[in-house]
Amino acid sequence: MRIDPFKLAHWMNARKYTVAQTADLAGLPLEELRRLLGDEGYEPGQAAADALAAALSVELSQLAGEAHRNLTVVHKSAAEMHASRRPIQRDGIHFYNYYTLAAPEGRVAPVVLDILCPADRLPALNNGHLEPAITVNLGPGDINGRWGEEITPQTWRVLHANQGTDRWITGDSYVEPSYCPHSYSLAGDAPARIVSYTAQSNISPLMAEANGWSSGAFEEALKALSGKVTAGSVLDLFLARRVHTRASAAEAAGVNPADLEEALRSPGTATGTGVLRRLGSAVGFDYRVLLPADDQHDGVGKTWTTVDDSRRSRRAWGTYEAASMASAAHLPDLVGTFLRVDSDGGGADLIDHAENHYIVTEGRLTLEWDGPDGPSSAELEPDGSAWTGPFVRHRWHGTGTVLKFGSGAHLGYQDWLELTNTFEPAATLRRGRRDVAGWGYDN
What is the pTM (predicted TM-score) of this model? Predict the structure, then answer.
């Protein structure tokens, strides 16, 4: 297998081993280890890779090289998308057809679904999934959505297709939370499709870690998180880790204990935020974690945007016209936009701090981007799709419509919180990227 030299150097630094010490621990010739650190393409034998992982007390996967490097854009033609079709049999009928859109290997990719369950049948629920999602009706027909066993106005609603003006806004959209059971059927005789933009979940690393915890430890975590997570419950965990009580922390911050209790009851007020900020500065935690989330969902976790809502959001952006899909402040990395392209020449540059996924819904469009070897382009027709990496400058031209989606697969809002805490973030990132420098004791 291929060892990533940057991961190898990172773990050597983290374990505080020199190159010579690592080679000795792994039983490898020093020159072979130096070659590994200097040649990304060099592949040691399996025995050598296993020995390095054992010497550094890591899993072999923690040293493995990435499948791709220097990726800027991945695109897929309509024909390639259609070739990914897989029929889903459910509840005794042909229920959906699934299609996968463009994405790099190993990344979560959006899917398109043909809705095939007939209107006169209650669609069987699925179990939900960890990834939150934006779901958009692509039309041409309306769709029944179901989100619970008991049928209520919150668990049964029509996801309308756009039958009026501005048809580039294809239909209603909604944000779906983690593990929300859901299912769809046709709402009439017209065929219909959705695009489900399942985004990377920000709690997936926590879930992967929790899979290795003992059952007792996991139950303790559930006790700490039971009910609605509040500023007080989180603060108590932070203080216990620092061997503080609320009283001793308030004293350290020069805060009246009564004022602290009031701040925990109303953390979003100016006074409450000020108290928590003083406390965090004194004890050493980021007070922003204690501020309340801006919940914008219904009783089953959905946040809805109708076609009319999207119409009212229309605005010009460079050479494009844009309209918003459903979004929610409590899932800030999950974004979607209807984008109307009308440009014979080069469209306005798009450059985002996180990845984008696109699907063309109308017209023949050209995606152009700045690649490592200069400008590159791809022509895409309806059902063609593309993925663009973070900070990759790109543009659309032609006449048509694309749906633009974004997730938090770097940089997400958690990264921004961390970067705002980082001393000299640009210098830190510059040093950390592809870093094979030792920690200073090799000579």
Answer: 0.86
**What is residue 116's DSSP assignment?**
-
> What is the token pair recorded at 126?
């699925």
Residue in 91, 109, 108 with CA at minimum distance from that of residue 100: 109
Starting at the edge strand found earlier in the chain, the sheet holding 133-140 runs 86-90, 93-100, 111-115, 192-198, 133-140, 173-176, 303-305
The CA distance from 135 to 101, in Å, is 14
Place of tokens 């200097």: 38
| Tokens 């306005």, located at residue | 348
Q: What angle do CA 315, 329, 287 make, to 5 degrees?
A: 130
CB neighbour class for 355 (10 Å; exposed up to 12, middle 13-18, buried from 19): buried
Structure tokens at 305: 């945007």
Q: Dihedral of CA 180/184/187/190: which sign? A: positive
**Cβ neighbour number for residue 197 with a 10 Å cutoff:** 29
Q: Locate tokens 């009580």: which residue?
A: 245
Other beta carbons within 10 angstroms of residue 275's beta carbon come to 24
Query: Which of 55, 195, 45 has its CA nearest to residue 111?
Result: 195
pLDDT digits (tens, 9 = 90+) for 50-103: 999 999 999 998 898 776 667 899 999 999 999 999 999 999 999 999 999 999
Degrees to nearest 5, angle at CA 338 with 112 and 82 = 25
Q: What stretches of 172-319 adopt beta strand conformation (E)? A: 173-176, 183-186, 192-198, 303-305, 315-317
Contact residues for 387 (Cβ-Cβ < 8 A; gap 6+) = 73, 74, 75, 101, 102, 103, 104, 107, 109, 355, 356, 357, 358
Q: Which residues pair with 209 in a beta bridge?
A: none
